[in-house]
Amino acid sequence: MSAPALDTPAEAAAHGKLSWGVKLAFGGPGLAGAAMAIPIGIFMPVFYSDVVLAPLGMIALATAMARAFDALTDPAVGWLSDKTRSRWGRRKPWIATGTPLAAVFFWLLFSPPEGLAPSAAVLWFGATFSLFFLFQTCEGVPLAALGAELTPDYGERNSVFGVRALFIALGTMVAAVVPAILTELLGPGRDREIFSGMSAAYGVVWLALMGIMLLVVSEHREYAERPSNPLVPGVRRALRNRPFAILLLASIVGAIPGAVPAVLMPYFVGYVLQPEEPVVWTGTFLFIYLATGLLFVPLWLWIAQRFGKLRAFVSAAFVGVAASLLYFFAGPGDLAWAGAVYFASGTQAMAGTFLIPAMAADVIDYDELRTGLRREAQFTSFWSVIPKLVSIPGYSIPLAVLAGVGYVPNEVQTAEVQFTIRFLYSLFPAAFFVAALVIVSRYPISEAIHGQIRDGIAAHARGETVTDPLTGHALPPHRLSQREIEESWFLDYFSVGELRSAVADGPQTVVRKVRVATCVSVVVCVVATLLAAAGVESFAVDPHPLSVVGVVVAGLGFTAVVFHALRLTPARRLVEAGPSREAIEAHLAETG
């Protein structure tokens, strides 16, 4: 007899099954969230460059600055969500606060006042874009963490995130065709009205679906009763989690060009394929791509259940790379060819949407086996911020490159501009996707391994020592008082190299190393900021492409400043009353 469908995470923890009501409620907000992502990823750059008439290069720079800010907000929100203790849980207070504010700034982003000068348009874009993503982080990271903790079952996670993927596919399909439909109904030249009304409608639907989710889906109370970990040691221990490191590295490599196809699609359709109605054809191709993705979700779910998540993901990624290469051979009037390629590419479009979160949830279980803690938000913030940060060049630099090679809005482009669009749209991302595919193929958690992980967690709860199924090392039961965690994780404030220096030359050397790292990070941040500013003449003129690179490096540098500054006090404590030499050596032996 099959296990009954259960409504709460606590019951799911015992039986691994969730009711369809919970799955639908959790997945539902994905419909509106995906519908909101399409205008931002596809239509926003061309809306601001060709309708609002903001300089394209300045859009790229403002986008880079806004996304670089996420380097701090994402991990901070993830850590704070894991630490939150309230009668409503760890996740819901953040979701309930962030969602309405994000909806407001999403509407403002697509409702700039008419008659703005180029400099004012850039400032409006930068402010609303930054605040939208700030509040989206406040709801998005905790929501992803909530999904990871709903059920411990290997296969049921495919179902949970598969249902969400179906909603996401449906939302993207709606968002793809709505601008074209409204353009046909209202006529050309009404882009401001179309995007303002559309953004308001999407925000209202998002609020309603998120409200239903908050009412129907329960949090796992037992997880919230466990103590939390310090931030910096938590980051270091996460990076020592081998399956996590593999997935994260693959995500980083894939994210570098990940935004290119989305941001360049209107330019590819309008200036390479050159149909008479570019907006209509962009919506048509996007609909083909997304509708195909929706239709193929059940197939990828079956493949994942039958052959495992990794094999399903690798197969889907291979199809995506092959299809991406075919875009390069399209030219003016090749609408049928482009439609066929969008169909082929669309067959795998939604696979990663549910496979990556399902694999990530298994990684979090492995972390629980090793640490005894449930750190869903801290892990999901990594998957959010690191790929997001490295995708800044993929989102911003193509726009800056187009401006640099002579792109002129609403005009027939030169052969050089057309070639640049085709190269950036096809060959450039394909090379990175192949590299990511090679990396992710080393992911080690299969269904059998995951079963051993869950068995080990249960054995730890009984006070037994277990064997790590990936390393073969013995793992004794964890000490889970807040004080014991603070003490046992203290040495994770420092790298292996720093601790070896402490053993060889004394702990005072660690203080010097941390101070040097902090100062170097400050210098990198300042120099990169000056580099970015040097390429900007005024808000009305396109900046130099290196300005975008400077913003990316400055964001990374500022994140490093904060990270190392948080280690200064622990470094002084290591000198004054830190662990013994023997304790440091034991820690080094344990961490390898």
SSE inventory with pairings:
Layout: H1 9-15, H2 20-27, H3 29-50, H4 56-83, H5 92-109, H6 118-148, H7 154-186, H8 191-216, H9 221-224, H10 231-239, H11 242-255, H12 260-273, H13 278-307, H14 309-326, H15 335-346, H16 351-371, H17 376-404, H18 415-425, H19 427-440, H20 447-461, E1 466-467, E2 474-475, H21 482-488, H22 496-505, H23 508-534, H24 545-565, H25 568-577, H26 581-591
Antiparallel strand pairs: 1-2
Helix pairs in contact: 2-7, 2-8, 3-7, 3-8, 3-12, 4-6, 4-17, 4-24, 5-6, 5-8, 6-17, 7-8, 7-13, 7-16, 11-17, 11-19, 12-13, 12-18, 13-14, 13-15, 14-15, 14-16, 14-19, 16-20, 17-24, 22-23, 22-26, 23-24, 23-25
What are its keywords?
Growth Hormone, Chain: A, 2 strands, two-stranded antiparallel ribbon, 592 residues
How many beta strands in the DSSP annotation? Answer: 2
Please name the CATH architecture of the largest domain: Up-down Bundle
Main sheet overview:
2 strands, antiparallel
Distance between the termini: 46 Å
SS strand fraction: under 5%
Give Rg in angstroms. Answer: 24 Å
Low-confidence stretches: 1-14
Give the total of domains.
Answer: 2
Succession of helices and strands: HHHHHHHHHHHHHHHHHHHHEEHHHHHH
Cα shape: globular
Number of helices: 26
Helix content: over 70%
Structural class given helices, strands, pairing?
A: mainly alpha
The CATH class of the largest domain, by name, is Mainly Alpha
Mean pLDDT: 84
What would you give as the CATH superfamily of the largest domain?
A: MFS general substrate transporter like domains
Strands in their spatial order, largest beta sheet: 1-2
Which fold name fills CATH's third level, the topology of the largest domain? Growth Hormone, Chain: A
